[in-house]
């Protein structure tokens, strides 16, 4: 038996999926290809956040590091189309595509 919270989440997930299907035109967008495939290189920004440095060995000249790596770039294939504004305006606050 579904609980009210599950129904609300399932409904919201379905709505977000519908919006993503409208926003991302699969005839022009292929997530396996980099932006501007076959054209100029894509500028990729990189940020590294070091969370810890440990197990430093002077004898072996090595160390262990834990870090977060963030990569950012612009993909014009995901540009927002103005005619979809009414669909998205009140439904989602942000959009993350994996």
From TrEMBL:
InterPro entries xref list: Neur_chan_lig-bd, Neur_chan_lig-bd_sf
Q: Ranges for the Neurotransmitter-gated ion-channel ligand-binding domain?
A: 18-89
Under Gene Ontology molecular function, one entry of this record is: extracellular ligand-gated monoatomic ion channel activity
- Which cellular component appears as one GO term in the record? membrane
Record-given protein name:
Neur_chan_LBD domain-containing protein
């Amino acid at each position: 038996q579904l609980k009210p919270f599950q129904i609300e989440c399932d409904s919201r997930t379905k709505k977000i999926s519908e919006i993503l299907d409208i926003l991302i035109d699969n005839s022009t967008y292929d997530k396996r290809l980099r932006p501007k495939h076959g054209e100029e290189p894509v500028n990729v920004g990189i940020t590294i956040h070091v969370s810890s440095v440990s197990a430093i060995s002077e004898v072996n000249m090595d160390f262990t590091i834990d870090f977060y790596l963030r990569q950012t770039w612009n993909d014009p294939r995901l540009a927002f189309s103005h005619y979809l504004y009414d669909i998205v305006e009140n439904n989602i606050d942000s959009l993350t595509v994996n």
